């Protein structure tokens, strides 16, 4: 019988236990750490995920990475998506654009998708977490989970046969993937469908006979005898990501299996695949957890929603789960916000995840193309209970409460620089700030001149970059004070010149 050791003393004051060190768990841990919390991050594997799987980073996620302080590294180590090149029997059929060409604008400075292998994204996030004083405990498997009114007890077992130990935390976040142990232990079900019955193999390979200027596409045979394949160069590496329809999934994949499938689906010979660095196969499913919260336990990322890789929405939706949840956990744990604030995580993220699932499935089945929706800049929380709009006549060019707050430069202020960090921002556009400000921790304020992308008014920007509250002028300040009690409690007023 395995002995269980209580570990409350070894982990004093664990506020949030994050299970899983993929992009979701690491992004959440970074967000919590920069807000002064000390999350305990555990990962069953002995190290970071080694593959390139989620390689496309959408513009909205680039904005998140800007705020988290990792954008420079993401841009330095990644690259734009290359032009597609279609092949048939070793003959080039011609180039085609994989994505709509979009130019950067003042309001949306980042375009995409930006290609970066998933393993490198995780390395960047882990380095940021360590710079913030956090880390990951690898080789720790969650086996039991129980909760009460005050917290959650989790039993962790070392992968190398160590003793089981119990850790107590105020909250637990399951960011542990599509086969989530946290989801299973909380009894949350998933509802979904099989998107494609044909298994898919994805592998990181070195190929000597293909140029690195194109995303190489190999259409399926017209008679159905051969499936689809794609070979994409991964920026900053000597590796291609190979994706191919797989005749039959196998319990174990060898390098020779990968080479054989590359040769079967493309004109590349098996001996031209000089290295196979990572490989995995899967069947394309779409599924959504029935709930994203069970008491003090939350689901995020693939633990909450499983996508087709078509359209590049899975990793991006997952990182934005973390970005939504991080500031809310910190508001409750650090700033005295009512616990009901945490209910808005599921309220906001479940509909967004459902929409992105539907988009991914439609793209996979050829019913939609990769366009504006895949960039995720149009996602909003207008229907959230946290969103209040007090203007009756919103300009056609302007944004509404619940929309993403656009970037821009006015009167020497870059808005994304103003918004960056773990705070709310009260922005007065072509009007005055109120004399009294809501008691929101670390609130920043700014006044700028006319800007059509907003329209005239007052705008309270949430820590995750969405407009929480909007009104015409300082005369609406009492409504802002009432709204602020949802995220800070009834703690009084702050003078505008404080």
UniProtKB/TrEMBL annotation:
Keywords: FAD, Flavoprotein, Monooxygenase, Oxidoreductase. PROSITE patterns: PROKAR_LIPOPROTEIN (PS51257). Its cofactor is FAD. Residues 14-357 form the FAD-binding domain. GO terms for molecular function: monooxygenase activity. PANTHER family: BINDING MONOOXYGENASE, PUTATIVE (JCVI)-RELATED, TRK SYSTEM POTASSIUM UPTAKE PROTEIN. NCBIfam families: PRK06184.1. This is FAD-dependent monooxygenase. It comes from Streptomyces antimicrobicus.
């Amino acid at each position: 019988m395995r002995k269980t050791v209580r570990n409350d003393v070894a982990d004093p004051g664990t506020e949030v236990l994050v299970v899983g060190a993929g992009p979701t768990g690491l992004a959440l841990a970074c967000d919590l750490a920069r807000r002064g919390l000390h999350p305990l991050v555990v990962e069953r594997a002995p190290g970071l995920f080694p593959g390139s799987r989620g390689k496309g980073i959408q513009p909205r996620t680039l904005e998140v990475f800007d705020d988290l302080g990792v954008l420079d590294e993401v841009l330095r180590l990644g690259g734009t998506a290359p032009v597609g090149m279609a092949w048939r029997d070793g003959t080039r059929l011609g180039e085609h654009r994989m994505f709509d060409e979009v130019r950067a604008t003042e309001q949306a400075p980042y375009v995409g998708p930006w290609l970066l292998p998933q393993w490198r994204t995780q390395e960047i996030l882990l380095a940021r977490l360590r710079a913030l004083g956090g880390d990951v405990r690898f080789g720790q498997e969650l086996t039991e989970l129980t909760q009460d009114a005050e917290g959650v007890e989790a039993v962790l077992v070392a992968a190398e046969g160590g003793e089981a130990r119990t850790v107590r935390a105020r909250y637990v976040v399951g960011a542990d993937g599509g086969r989530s142990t946290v989801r299973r232990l909380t009894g949350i079900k998933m509802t979904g469908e099989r998107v494609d019955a044909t298994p898919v193999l994805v592998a990181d390979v070195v190929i000597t006979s293909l140029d690195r200027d194109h995303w190489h596409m190999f259409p399926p045979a017209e008679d159905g005898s051969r499936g689809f394949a794609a070979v994409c160069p991964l920026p900053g590496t000597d590796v291609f990501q190979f994706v191919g329809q797989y005749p039959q999934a196998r319990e174990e994949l060898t390098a020779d299996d990968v080479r054989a499938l590359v040769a079967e689906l493309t004109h590349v010979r098996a001996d031209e695949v000089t290295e196979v660095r990572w490989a995995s196969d899967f069947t394309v499913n779409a599924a959504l957890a029935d709930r994203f919260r069970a008491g003090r336990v939350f689901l995020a990322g693939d633990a909450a929603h499983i996508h087709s890789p078509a359209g590049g929405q899975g990793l991006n939706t997952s990182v934005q789960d973390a970005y939504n949840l991080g500031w809310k956990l910190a508001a409750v744990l650090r700033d005295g916000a009512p616990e009901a604030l945490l209910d808005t995580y599921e309220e906001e993220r479940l509909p967004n995840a459902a929409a992105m699932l539907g988009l991914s499935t439609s793209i996979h089945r050829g019913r939609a193309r990769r366009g504006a929706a895949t960039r995720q800049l149009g996602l909003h929380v207008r229907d959230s209970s946290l969103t209040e709009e007090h203007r009756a006549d919103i300009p056609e060019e302007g944004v509404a409460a619940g929309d993403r707050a656009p970037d821009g430069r006015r009167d020497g202020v870059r808005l994304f620089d103003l918004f960056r960090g773990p705070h709310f921002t009260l922005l007065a556009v072509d009007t005055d700030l109120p004399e009294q400000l809501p008691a929101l921790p670390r609130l920043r304020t700014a006044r700028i001149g006319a800007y059509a992308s907003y329209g005239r008014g007052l705008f309270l920007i949430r820590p995750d970059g969405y407009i929480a509250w909007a009104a015409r002028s300082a005369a609406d300040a009492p409504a802002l004070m009432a709204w602020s009690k949802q995220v800070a409690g009834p703690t009084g007023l702050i003078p505008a010149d404080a």
